[in-house]
Design brief:
With 592 residues, this protein is α/β, with parallel strands linked by helices. It folds into 4 domains: 2-334 and 344-351, 3-Layer(aba) Sandwich (Aminopeptidase); 357-398, no CATH class; 404-516 and 575-583, no CATH class; 522-567, no CATH class. Helices cover 31% and strands 24% of the residues. The protein contains 17 helices and 20 strands. The protein has helices spanning 2-11, 34-37, 46-59, 113-127, 146-150, 187-199, 226-229, 231-251, 281-286, 303-323, 325-335, 416-424, 489-496, 522-535, 537-549, 551-554, 557-567; strands at residues 13-17, 63-70, 76-82, 100-104, 137-141, 203-209, 219-223, 256-258, 271-272, 291-297, 344-351, 357-370, 377-394, 397-404, 408-411, 430-431, 436-450, 461-475, 480-483, 581-583. The strands form 5 sheets. It has a 9-stranded mixed β-sheet. It has a 4-stranded antiparallel β-sheet with strand order 16-19-15-20, with no helix packed on it. Strand 12 and strand 13 (377-394) form a beta hairpin. It is globular.
Length: 592
């Protein structure tokens, strides 16, 4: 751990840290944000945001701003910290002595509500305008998608009511960063991982603006799916944190409902909870036992109203986090006992349609009418007809695919990108000291589907199916042994198990194994195949049976030659063989 901290510190630069409070400047008026000065109509530029936090850090000892890793834009990612009572400087004195709430803003810079709300939040904490948290520190990423924030415009948020100007959804490489947390194609994702594994947050909040139906709420929440988070920690989020937050906001006249997971239809017919896979921010943070949520304000509400609602939610969330520290600390530790070698881990989830609840929902009457543009029926919501009615809400998921957790994985040293990402995510591993052969489990890819359209720079695989086989494996000196008995075990399982929805396999990291490198000329193999069958009567019988049982195979001469070729020594062993090995029992490095 000491080595890791030293390594992180070598890449982290303390931009500025306040050394004194200046009472003469300790007034809200002196620190008005651009949002407040504009009467709630505008959001600041990237430069204005960073300058504002610098000013707070200069004037208040409780605020610090740190320059972290680089982003695709060429600008560094920043972390702003409000240090709770007794908290050490996180750079100079390890990680500090209080748990963190980490707030991420501007992953989609056009959804700027959290950018402005967080600026007011940190100011009000520093000035004492809010109750001082006793048990936690607050970390804020001012703008995560800096490239998108620099690409300001006033037109791309077609469905959104303000602000006047805002950033663009795509980053400097035009990636949607809220699809990049696992595959990490961007420098932004690597810089985020550095922040995340430095502060090790107990709680994580990502601020967004919704898209979809019309309804009365300004606020909706998207907590990480509780069954997937699992165990007592999932129960805490679902049965304690979520209802407590809802009740606190309702008491302030900010009613809130789960994210309205519909598109171009009325929510009155009910909807289900969105499940956040590891590609998304809260799906990623879940892999490290962090209680996460997204704030989704309603895009059609006035900008000022949305920002103030976000501010109210953040302040209430911090209050609850401060109250729940001991509970969450214990639950996080208990969670690790659920993911030990030999236990089963859920790789895929499906909505349990037999389980649903009803929720009171504040909506608007919806109907269809002929479109003046196309002549076809179109959906519209009548804001003159608000309603409050019970609707069906489904938020229970069940596992539909599980895997036994191995004792360790062995990754060939040739897969540099995999190793780089594991290290960036604080995964502990050791290099194999000398070449030797061991018996272990390997996978062969039996089936998969590939998207016909590009998705975030990839042609994503899905529906992957594997078959396992125990066999002798030669491990080369320098290959990496990765034990699963560590804090990041869930991350390991999600990226290294091919059938996991956001596995490195499904994100095309291993596509070279899908292409056969050596083949045959039919006129040559015909004669060799006859000789092969003469020497292998059991394969001859299997070949005869397959032709008798499979008419399409019997009618396809090339398929027959190919099938025979795959039974012979001429067929390359690397084709469809997943290169990462699963070791199911404890091993000693270098044992004979």
């Amino acid at each position: 751990m000491a080595f890791r901290i030293a390594l992180l510190l070598s890449f982290m630069t303390l931009i500025t840290q306040g050394c004194h409070d200046n009472p003469s400047k300790n007034s809200k008026g002196h620190y008005l944000t651009h949002f407040e000065v504009s009467q709630g109509e505008q959001t600041p530029t990237y430069a204005q945001v960073i300058a504002y936090y610098h000013k707070l850090a200069e004037d208040f000892t409780t605020i610090s701003i740190y320059q972290m890793g680089q982003t695709d834009s060429g600008e560094p990612l920043h972390l702003v910290v409000y240090k709770g009572k007794g908290t050490k400087n996180i750079v100079n004195d390890s990680l500090g002595d209080l748990p963190f709430v980490l707030i991420n803003n501007g992953i989609h810079p056009g959804e700027s509500d959290g950018i402005d709300a967080s600026m007011m939040l940190m100011r009000d904490l520093a000035q004492g305008n809010l109750a001082t948290p006793n048990n936690i520190s607050i970390g804020v990423i001012p703008i995560y998608n800096i490239g998108g924030a620099l690409n300001r415009n006033s037109g791309t948020r077609t469905n959104q009511n303000g602000p006047k100007e805002y950033g663009f959804r795509g980053n400097a490489q035009n990636f949607d960063l809220n699809r990049d947390f696992i595959k990490s194609d961007t420098k932004n994702a690597i810089a985020f991982a550095e922040i995340f594994h430095t502060v090790k947050p107990f709680w994580f909040v990502d601020t967004h603006v919704s898209n979809g139906a019309d309804y009365q709420y300004t606020l909706t929440h998207l907590f990480t799916q509780h069954n997937k988070l699992g165990g007592p920690l999932g129960d805490y989020v679902h049965q304690s944190l979520m209802p407590d937050l809802e009740n606190m906001l309702a008491a302030q006249d900010w009613p809130i409902t789960p994210y309205v997971n519909v598109f171009n239809q009325s929510p009155e017919f009910g909807f289900n909870q969105f499940i956040d896979h590891p590609r998304y921010s809260t799906g990623y943070t879940t892999l490290f036992h962090t209680a996460g949520m997204m704030i989704e304000t309603h895009m059609l509400k006035p900008y000022k109203q949305r920002v103030m609602a976000t501010y109210a939610l953040l302040t209430d969330f911090i209050t609850l986090a401060d109250q729940h520290v001991d509970v969450v600390a214990q639950l996080r530790q208990e969670t690790t006992s659920r993911f030990r070698p030999g236990q089963r881990y859920a790789m895929d989830w499906t909505l349990d349609t037999t389980a649903h609840t009803t929720r009171s929902f504040l909506g608007f009457e919806a109907a269809k009418k002929p479109s003046a543009l196309t002549g076809f029926d179109r959906l519209f919501f009548d804001r003159n007809k608000p309603y409050n009615r019970e609707i069906a809400y489904q938020d229970t998921y069940r596992s539909k695919k599980e895997v036994v957790i191995p004792h360790s994985y062995i990754i060939p040293k040739t897969y540099d990108k995999v190793i780089t990402l594991l290290k960036a995510n604080d995964i502990q591993m050791t290099q194999w000291p000398k070449s030797q052969t061991i018996d272990a489990e390997v996978y062969y890819i039996d089936d998969y589907k590939t998207s016909k359209n590009p998705f975030e720079g990839h042609y994503l695989h899905s529906g992957t199916k594997v078959r396992s086989q125990n066999q002798s494996n030669t491990i080369q000196q320098g290959d990496w042994v990765v034990p699963t008995d560590q804090w990041g075990v869930r991350y390991l399982l999600e990226v290294l198990e091919p059938e996991a929805i956001d596995s490195f396999f499904n994100w095309n990291f291993f596509d070279t194994i899908l292409q056969q490198k050596e083949g045959f000329s039919p006129y040559v193999w015909e004669d060799l195949a006859l000789e092969f069958l003469e020497n292998h009567p059991e394969i001859r019988q299997a070949f005869t049976d397959k032709k008798a049982q499979d008419q399409s195979f019997a009618d396809n001469w090339y398929a027959q030659l190919d099938w025979l070729h795959k039974q012979s020594i001429h067929y390359e062993s690397a084709h469809l063989r997943y290169p990462i090995v699963r070791v199911m029992s404890q091993i000693s490095l270098g044992e004979e």
